[in-house]
Amino acid sequence: MSCQERRKKNPVRSPSVSEAAALPKVTLNQRWLLVSSIAVLSVASAVFAWRQNHLAVVGGPISMAKTLWLNYMLIAMYVVPFFLWRDQTLAPATRKLFGCLFVSFALRAPIELWIIFFTRGWRCAYGIAHDLLTLGLMIYLRWRMSPELPPRDVTALRVATLLQITLLVEMFMAWEFSKLASPAQGIYFAADTPHFHFVNVATWIAVAAGYPALLYLLPRNREEPAHV
User: Fold this and answer.
1) 8 lies in some domain
2) Is residue 50 part of a domain?
3) Nearest-CA neighbor of 39 among 87, 71, 83, 86?
4) Distance of CA 12 to the CA centre of its chain
5) Closest CA to 173 of 198, 153, 139, 193
6) What is the pLDDT of residues 108-167, one digit of tens each?
7) Which of 109, 149, 181, 202 is least surrounded by CB atoms within 10 angstroms?
8) Does residue 73 contact residue 202 with C-beta atoms inside 8 Å?
9) What's the domain range around 200?
């Protein structure tokens, strides 16, 4: 059988050399963009902590544990959901889940910051209520998903489970903080003092568990076969 006859019988072609070289480049660019976003955010968190601890600004001093937790929350609720939402290799329902999480916190941010810095009227209960509503939305969207999902989506949903646990931990710590300080007094963060000892210890435990779990799950999600 000639080469032309074989091509007619088998119309499926392999990608050309140029196409094959371009495919992993997209994934590599996305990965570097994700890593760069996390790095920039981490530097910003460090600068923010220095500002809180060295200048007399609204919010008061912040402990190292709370700085790391703040950075983790920003990564977990903004960076990670955004990139998974925009990941075209995931199923639409999976992308919608992460998109709703990102939009939920993107809408909260300007409202919370305005209340904090211009009215000082923010209360821990507001944040807890928002976290609870977001958690409920995630549970509802996952309940509506098909039980049969590609391996890549299953791995992505493990990340979603971690983020749901993160919301529960954040609600618990916000509740404990509300017992010790009031945002109405301009105190929004736990300082490294005996007064906030329990909150800081609980935060160190959350940080020690959260970062490794996120670092473990994200690379696994990138390595799973793509949804087609």
Assistant:
1) no
2) no
3) 71
4) 39
5) 198
6) 999 998 888 788 788 889 999 999 999 999 999 999 998 888 888 999 999 999 999 999
7) 109
8) no
9) 57-223
- State the total domains in the chain: 1
Residue 30 lies in a domain: no
Q: Which residue has the tokens 């941010």?
A: 109
- The DSSP bridge partners found for residue 35 are none
Angstrom distance (rounded) from CA 54 to CA 202: 25
- Please report which confidence band the pLDDT of residue 21 belongs to, taking 50, 70 and 90 as the band edges: very low
Q: Find the distance separating the first CA and the last CA of the chain, reported in whole Å.
A: 33
Quote the CA–CA distance of 143 and 148 in Å, as a whole number: 12
- For residues 46 and 67, is the Cβ–Cβ distance under 8 A? yes
Residues composing the chain: 228
Alpha-carbon separation of residue 112 from 49, 55, 119, 120, 207 (angstroms) = 18, 21, 10, 10, 23
The span from the CA of 63 to the CA of 42, in Å, is 15
Quote the distance between the C-alpha of residue 136 and its chain's center: 17
- 59 phi and psi angles, rounded to 5 deg: 115, -30
Question: Contact 141/97 with Cβ under 8 angstroms?
Answer: yes
What's the whole-number mean pLDDT along residues 70-84? 96
Q: Round to whole Å and give the CA distance between 172 and 206.
A: 11
